[in-house]
Design a protein that fits this description.
The protein is an alpha+beta fold. The protein has one helix and three strands; from the N terminus they run βαββ. The chain has one domain. A hairpin with a 5-residue loop joins strand 2 and strand 3.
Length: 51
């Protein structure tokens, strides 16, 4: 069974592509983007544990 690790990342609207590309290049898969507590965005990423 695959085990996962997760990370949450604040996403700046003016740098969305750069932020997503950076985490993706590290093996993180975007799960969801949701509104954050301060009118910003928060991205949830996952990747197989040990990747």
């Amino acid at each position: 069974m695959t085990k996962w690790e997760y990370v949450t990342v604040p996403v700046l609207v003016h740098a969305t592509k750069q932020i997503l590309d950076n985490w993706g290049s590290e093996g993180w898969e975007l799960v969801q983007i949701v509104p954050g507590p301060n009118a910003d965005l928060v991205a949830y990423f996952k990747r197989p544990l040990g990747a």
